[in-house]
Amino acid sequence: MILPILNSEITFLQFLPFDLPEPLISIIFLLIGASIIAVVASVLALVGVYLERKISAHMQDRLGPMEVGPHGIAQTFADAIKLLIKEDIVPQDADKLLHFIAPVMVFAATLAAFAVLPFSKTLVVSDLNIGLLYIIAISSFVVIGAILAGWASNNKWSLLGGMRSAAQIVSFEIPASLAVLSVIMIVGSMNLGDIVEYQKGGFFNWIIFKYFPFNFIAFIIYFIASLAEVNRAPFDLPEAESELIAGFHTEYSGMKWAMFFLAEYANMFLVGVVASTLFLGGWSSPFGDFLNSGPFPVFWIFIKSFSLIFVQIWIRWTLPRVRVDQLMYVSWKVLTPFAFVAILGVGIWMVL
Amino acid sequence: MLSNFGSILFFLIFGAVFVCVNILLSRLLQTRNPYPVKLSVYECGELPEGNSWIQFNIRFYVIALIFLIFEVEIVFLFPWAVVFKDLGMFAFVEMLIFVGILLVGLAYVWAKGDLEWDKPEQVPSPELYRTDNVNSAVKITESVAS
Amino acid sequence: MITNAILILLLPLFAFVVQIFIGKRLPRQGDWLPTGAIICSFLLALPIFFDALSNYEAGHVVVQQSWEWLRFGNLEITFGIYVDNLTSIMLIVVTLISSLVHIYSIGYMQGDERYSRYFAYLCLFSFAMLGLVLVDNFFGIYCFWELVGLGSYLLIGFWFEKKSASDASKKAFITNRVGDVGMFAGIMIIFSTLGVFGFTDVFTKIADGGLSGTMLTVTGILIFFGAIGKSAQFPLHVWLPDAMEGPTPVSALIHAATMVAAGVYMVGRTFVIYTEDALLFIAIIGTITAFMAATIAIVQKDIKRVLAYSTISQLGYMMVGLGTGGYTAGLFHLTTHAFFKALLFLGSGSVIHAVHSQDMDDMGGLRKKMPITFWTFLIGTLALSGVPPFSGFWSKDAILASALEFGMNHSAYMWIFVAMLLSAGITAFYMFRLIFMTFTGQAKDQKKFDHAHESPFTMTLPLVVLAVLSVGTIWWGWIEHLLAKPELATYATVAVGAVEHSAEHGNAHLAHTIALFSSIAVAGSGILLAAVVYHWKKISAEAWGSKLKPVYNLLWNKYYFDEMYEATVIRATLWKSRIFAAFDVKIIDGFVNGIATVTSKFASLQGAIDRVGVDGMVNGVARVVGVFSNRLRTIQTGKIQTYILMALFAVLILFVLQQF
Amino acid sequence: MLAVGLNHYLILSAILFCLGLFSVVTKKNAVTVLMGVELILNAANINFIAFAKYVDNDLDGQMIALFVIVTAAAAAAVALAIVLNIYQRLKSINLDEADSLAG
Amino acid sequence: MNITLFDTIFYLLAFLTLGSAAIMVFSKNVIYSAVGLLFTFFGVAGIYVLLAADFVAVVQVLVYVGGILILLLFGVMLSNKITNIEITTETLHFLPASLVVIGIFVVLYRVFITTDWNPVGSYNFDPTTHEIGTLLMTDYLIPFEIASILLLGALIGAAYIARKD
């Protein structure tokens, strides 16, 4: 299943002078597709940053970035360019190689996750049969990246931050996976396309409303867990300025730091999309088949994910930071049990 | 099915390449005059004292351990979930047993207190902070000191 | 009836058991218990006797009851009670005399330190005697035979602190045992051939021909050996005179009435198994014993010894009676002799009790001092020497008649009758010699004479009772019928050829009359001779004694039997034991010591080898192992990796080997 | 290069196996030894799945591989717990020093 | 995708796995070996994909990379006095070990080459999750339950051992 957009380009290559060997063609297609997705991801990340700063400002009754472009739209692009130029300091006797590899892994993993997300019926890079599981698997690369970053910068605070963020992501991955499980039980397949297909019939057909209380709980658990996975909002302990300076990417500056920052927001967006596909019916329109054809699916997926992002940002600037032991308490002693309850509930409901 | 994985592999490589390109690009463009202080390890501005030797408490390992065990549990749960619709009660009961046993493990770990993180010292309760009179402040400092 | 028989048997046993254990603590040291028991046995014996008396046809059995006693696989030894005419008579004899002796010994044994034990032994002896009489099989009779021997041993050696008493009891026991061996052999032959012990079974089997000819004769003689030992017949009579060491009532009971009679009873009981030759043998032995004992009695100084030898000769008489076919005569004499001999012994007992010495030289003129003892003693002597109205005459006369009849039938054996007649005369002579030396004439020892006094009532009562029983007339009439001669034929279930002896029946009457008159004559001359020599002192005993010096010495030394035995049997055994001892010392010890030295030498050698060789080797091995193990230890570095590497190396080698 | 057949995978797993073995045998650091063990297990898994695909052509091999992964996870967990314990006691996880059982 | 691409990818992945495995084995620094191990796991996952075992590949990534490697990294962090970044790990009797290992490799090689596996050689790539699910619930039920007990044991054991006191 290759990107539909790509299909349109085939004609473009027809009239190329020489006949490329077959594999090269597919590679080229992939190259184009990947570059598009990469650009989309980074743009979304920048938009995410922009949104974050604007919304948080408005919440705090201030304007937020206004100078650069109309309402500061170009602000994040300006930041990006600034970071390009900024000096990239590597602390002395830090492990140069690992210092370089860490951001690569983090961003690559996040980007790889985008490949599976279905933006519309056909608009998906690779419609994996085990898409959902793949997303969870890939997110573990981020953990490794965090630890290595913490380690490479030879700074005990950053190492501690890296370890702590790893522990946090790790301990929240369990509730997230369990929450996702109930969805798979209902749909019977891990393919995101199928999941969306299952929720096609309008607002009430969304999984969040099926088997009423349990799936809603599952959605809540998944949303909270994903917040923690992204190290955001109440759980952004590792970057907490008051405690561990900037967490594992204190010693980073310049482009590498940008990569981390970008990865974080891309991850935020990733989580939004996944949550919406799983629970809110992905690209299917809330009004049944009404506005479902043509470009609308993409529109719907963005609407839903941006609304989730808005909630994330909203939570970030309202809730106080959580202490570490409370963090662990939430993940193990609240979310995991409730996730099991959800699975059990759904299971019994389906079996009866 | 192969092509999907192919694209994923490609994405990973592409992601890495994208990052490398950016970093190299920035390396070309950035100004660079490293001097020792700048390169020293950032300690909120203070001079970094002592080496970065920190003795971790075992808490991290236990969390990772529990995560691993539950991760593996989830790995088993996934195929079950996929197949759940077709199998019906029998599979459900089996899974109950499987999850039940592991919940016992969770209960054990929970009971043994491996899940708690080390709580920071208990700060003296807020009313002690009423500084309406001087002696109470003195009292507070003594209680804190003790 | 059966309960009476059992009670008769068990009462003395019960008394013995109680007496032996708690006799001392009973009032009057428990003398009343055994006496009472034996008197009860006597009373119980009376009904059996009257029953036998009322229907005395031959072979009438009053009680026949047997229980299974021992069982060895298929061999079953039964123990039972068999009471017929003969046993009923014997019961009366034994129980009566035993109770009289018990009463007598209450007086006689007064003050003895082992008073209660004496009664216990008496009771044990009576139990054994009753058992011997009542039992119905050979095995039983042999057991009681031994028990009686034990009883006599205990009683003879009662004053065991006296060396002579203990020697006498040992002598008695050993000589009895010698006889018993013969008897045992006889019983074993019977058992081995016939396989049964019971009398009636044995007799029926023999009658059916199970055992016959010379074998039967030999068995008969062997069993008679037991009787020789027990009844002190010719070769084995030496123990009886020495047995006088025991207290006089004991001698009375054992050596007058019961035990010695046991031999005769046994021959009577098993009379049917004796063949002609066996009976002849018995008769010969009987005559020799009778004549020899009588002659020895003449020269005896000790009053009890005289009576002892007279008992031996009278027993010889009984054996001759049985041997010559006079079954009724022999047994009749047994019963009468039991009574008057017991009387004589008890009489001599009271004399000794009074005079405190057994030597007749110290006595004399006791007639006035002890009238009752004298008169009863006189009656006993008259009965013994065969004066007509007394019981002794009838029984002795019957034996002489049967001996004469036998002599007539087998003219070669006439000398038996002559010898018996002669010994009857001698008996009369020495009995009256005794009377005159003790009771009549002057007191030889004045001091003892003054001291002499009549015995107390408990001692004189039995004397009177016995005296009454010694009067012959009460026996007349019914005794022959009771002691009818049993015929083997009666037992034969299979008719065996007519018994050949009926022919001689003719001259029985003739023999009877001759015997009658000759015995009276002989008795009278004996008494007359004794009176002449001892009463009127016309002929001086010492003169004749010196004139016939060699004969006197021979008699005085009891035909030197003791010395002969001493010389032959005892010295031979001593000599043999010395040889064996020497042999043992020199050869065996030598051999053993030799082996000891050899082994010690060999051991030292072996020790050396062991030290050098074995220890050497063992230490060597230990050292080698030590060396190797040290080298091996280095491999054990403790590092896990080295172990894994070694393991892998092994796996590699395995792979490689597996490939090629 | 000839088309990718079963042997290629077997050789690949053999190489991996030997590398893992080498690391287990030579490495002094306990954690590296554990890594070596993981490598060996992966090599085994490759074989399982290769045979499942090429020889049996059914999923049993994959099931076993799945269970091997699970067991490896459990084993690694416990092994590492032990290593940490050694560290707490001997203040170092250099296997050379942990030779108290030397002969 | 044609076959040749398939082979190229195989060789690519093989090179990736073996290279990173070599890094892991021969590197002095433990962290470097950990990263090497990471890429090895990733390479092996790729190979599983080539062997049409997609679920197992993702599980491999999920469990090994997401679980065991993190555990190992934590282990390394917790057990090393990170005095200096460079945590050297000398090797022990290098030579004999290499000889034995090479010997074993040669033997394995011979076995693999000589024996005739009569491979079926089919290239169907259809998704396996559903089938694995059913298999898990039917044929492999017992191992499934035993696995849960194993995990319980491991959890309790490791937790107990690792506990501080």
Describe the structure.
The complex is a heteropentamer of chains A (352), B (146), C (660), D (103) and E (165). By secondary structure, chain A is mostly helical. Chain A contains twelve helices and no strands. Chain A has helices at 4-14, 22-59, 75-85, 96-114, 131-152, 156-187, 192-198, 212-229, 241-244, 255-279, 296-316, 324-351. Mean pLDDT of chain A is 80; it is low at 5-9. The longest helix of chain B is centred in the middle third of the chain and has 29 residues, at 59-87. Chain B contains five helices and no strands. The longest helix of chain D is centred in the C-terminal third of the chain and has 31 residues, at 60-90. With 103 residues, chain D is mainly α. The model of chain D has no long low-confidence stretch (mean pLDDT 84). Chain D has a domain at 29-95 and 99-103. Chain D contains three helices and no strands. In chain D, helix 1 (6-26) packs antiparallel against helix 2 and helix 2 (30-56) packs antiparallel against helix 3. Chain D has helices at residues 6-26, 30-56, 60-90. Chain E has 165 residues and is mostly helical. The model of chain E is unreliable at 82-87 (pLDDT under 50). Chains in contact: A-B, A-E, B-D, B-E, C-D, C-E, D-E.
How are the SSEs placed, and which strands pair?
The complex is a heteropentamer of chains A (352), B (146), C (660), D (103) and E (165).
Chain B (H helix, E strand, L loop, with lengths): L1 H28 L6 H4 L19 H29 L1 H24 L21 H12 L1
Helix pairs in contact in B: 3-4
Chain C lengths: L1 H21 L9 H23 L6 E12 L2 E10 H24 L6 H20 L3 H19 L6 H32 L4 H9 L5 H18 L8 H4 L5 H10 L1 H11 L6 H24 L3 H21 L3 H29 L15 H15 L5 H19 L4 H25 L7 H6 L5 H14 L8 H4 L5 H4 L16 H28 L5 H7 L1 H8 L4 H75 L4 H20 L1
Antiparallel strand pairs in C: 1-2
Helix pairs in contact in C: 1-2, 1-4, 2-3, 2-4, 3-4, 3-10, 3-14, 3-19, 4-5, 5-6, 6-8, 8-11, 8-12, 10-14, 11-13, 11-14, 12-13, 12-17, 12-24, 13-14, 13-16, 13-17, 14-15, 14-16, 14-19, 15-17, 15-19, 16-17, 16-22, 17-22, 23-24
Chain D lengths: L5 H21 L3 H27 L3 H31 L13
